[in-house]
Design a protein that fits this description.
By secondary structure, the protein is mainly α. It is 84% helix and 0% strand. It contains four helices and no strands. The chain is globular.
Length: 110
Amino acid sequence: MLTVLAVSLLLTLVFEEGFALAWGLRGRRELGLVALVNILTNPAVVLLYYTAAGPLHWNAIPVTVVLEASAILVEWLCYRAFSEQVKRPFLFALLINLFSYGAGCVINLL
């Protein structure tokens, strides 16, 4: 499980830092915020997903929707409160998470 958590976090950091750069974020503070927000949300989402969809046998689709929506909400609040460069924090949190989730889905298909 630790390997899954580490790989998921590493890939998320790579994808979301790249997205943040493409969005126009610059500087250690802003890119550090993106990293910290993901360190806060990604392990919790992955662990809860594997707990709910695994041993509890809950349907993976609603579990994923609820967990990803929760991550977007937490990240939006963090960007809104702490970012000096993100002008539309909800849109940023939504798109950055859709991008990294979609990239993860593509990797899982390979």
